[in-house]
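Bug: token stream looks shifted between consecutive jobs. Job 1:
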Amino acid sequence: MLRYLPFLLVLALWIYAFIDCLNTPEEEVRGLPKVVWVIIILLFGEVLVGPIAWLVAGRVRRAPAGGSTPSEWHRNHRTTFVAPDDNPEFLHSLREENKKDESLLKDWEADLRRREEELKKREQGGEQA
């Protein structure tokens, strides 16, 4: 089984590069037309030249969304993501939910007290009779 591993890895990279090339919009393809890249991937896939060429030079790669990079420009510019405990809207929504939960709990407690009182009255009425 282990002797088939290199073949399976090459096949997996070949398939990944082919599908990635097909799914990439035409305006994100660099260097050559998309059809030429597909042909290169298919013809030179067994020796890994085609898939590696596609992954390295064929597609425009974007920076990770919200991720940090080592470049100085990125370090000086913060992303717009705010942690939930620093987000005022999220904290306000938690307070609102807490108020709703507290009012519901008070209603349940009042209902429980009322039922307990009714039960006590029934028991007292049954003992007197």
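Job 2, same session, no restart:
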Amino acid sequence: MAKTPDFAKTMQDMMANFPIDTSSMQEAMKSQSMLGEKLAKVALGAAERSTEISARWAKDTIARAGELAAVRDEPSEYAKAMSDFASASAEMAAEHMAAYAELAKKVQMDTVDLMLTAGKDIAADAQKVAEKATRETQAAVKKATTATAAAAK
């Protein structure tokens, strides 16, 4: 019966000869988490502000509807009240849509700012990792060259 060789020790030895620096991964995860937190704050702030705008719009509309429901002496006053309500509703819609537009613009600017900052941070981190890898590679090449020269003598 054939015995299957155990490659666990071989793999452990091989991985030990290729050390991996996990600090760059940890930094990347930390940076990503921080970006996610900041983006979540922007989104939650926008949701809160949007809810405030919607609530104010609803309160204004309800207040106007209360005025519309009042009893009038003349039938023409009902038509005028309805016309006033429609005009006021159109004005409120314009005001509240402008508030939504301002909110969207602010969220867009905050998001772009966060993404630009994150891009700069990522570029700086990548440069640090590349410089470290270059130093380590040069040291390994120098060590290998020295060992080869010593073995040749």
